[in-house]
Amino acid sequence: MTTTTTPVSTTPPPPSRRRRRVGALVAAAVLAAGGLGAGLALALGGSASSASSSYDYYRSVMGRYGTGSMMGGPSGPMAGRFGYGWMMGGTGAPGWMHGQSLPGFMMGGSNDPGTVMGRLFADAPGPRISPADATRLGNAVPAGASRDRSANRLTFTTTSVRLVVLASPSMPAERFRIAGMVDPTVVVPVGAQVHVELVNADEDMAHGLVVTASGAASSWMPMMTAAPAFSGAALWFLGEETSAGMHTGKLSFSAVSPGTYQYLCPVPGHAQEGMAGTFVVRANG
Question: Which pTM does this prediction carry?
């Protein structure tokens, strides 16, 4: 297939276009990280029946940028199948889709990707809960677990693990709250079936949760560099709170390999700022 390369201007765009570009690029990064079909469903905390539904939602997102934007609006080049394939990591994808940093003028200043993403996906499908219920769940000690506040550790002794994670419930600190603790070490036995309900408790920013390799929090953009340590151990992000409540999503995985991992927020910059904790899969005995 023959493609045409369009020259790219090196002049920084005005702030309004810059915000749109950031939102589109970060949204595309999430789609690319998650794959053609199920990736978008994971990002939104729901389930997709096919790649077609993912593409339809992609088109609806691109359509928000209007004619004349970098994305070209709902009928522009990036809204079509070619653009969708490019965004999904095709051979023509730029370096930022392979772990390199975006140009500073795209991500600097007030154009925080978490804010852009939170607003962009605020009305995405998915269950909601009230702030009061979120606070109650975020402070509760899960069944089968013991809490050690002095060590900031939550230890499960059962192979059925269910916990609630609140993302950034007390801004400006970007942190997780689990069982009333901030970014605690979570310990589960090897072979445990882990079920996590993530609640985005931030009123104006997107957050997600990924269990990945230890040390991955050093990456500025773990969406593109921090693969899930276990199949199903990623929910890339949830939109900001609306009048309908706080957006929630679930991820489930089997902790099949003993070792020390990290759980972190994959939204660009958040893990580097401290939104991460240790996840330990303990071997029998």
Answer: 0.68
The full length of the chain comes to 285
What are the structure tokens assigned to 147, written together?
């809490």
Q: What residue type is assigned to position 98 of the chain?
A: H
Sign of torsion, CA 13 86 60 39?
negative
CATH level 3 topology of 128-282: Immunoglobulin-like (2.60.40)
pLDDT of residue 141 exceeding 70, the answer is yes
Collect all residues with Cβ–Cβ distance below 8 Å to 279 and sequence separation of at least 6. 185, 186, 188, 211, 260, 261, 262, 263
pLDDT band at residue 48 using 50, 70 and 90 as cut-offs: very low
Mean pLDDT of 162-174: 83
| Whole-number Å distance between alpha carbons of 73 and 94 | 21
Instruction: For the chain, give every domain's residue range.
Output: 15-111, 128-282
Contact between 207 and 267 (Cβ < 8 Å): yes
pLDDT, tens only, 194-227: 999 999 999 888 999 999 988 877 777 776 667 8
CB 208 within 8 A of CB 239: no
- For 228, half-sphere exposure in the C-beta direction (CA atoms, 13 angstrom radius) is 21
Cβ-count burial 235-244 (b if 16+ within 10 Å, e if not): bbbbbbbeee
Q: What angle, rounded to 10 degrees, do the helices at 15-34 and 51-62 form?
A: 170
Chain segment 86-105, per-residue pLDDT in tens: 554 455 555 544 445 554 44
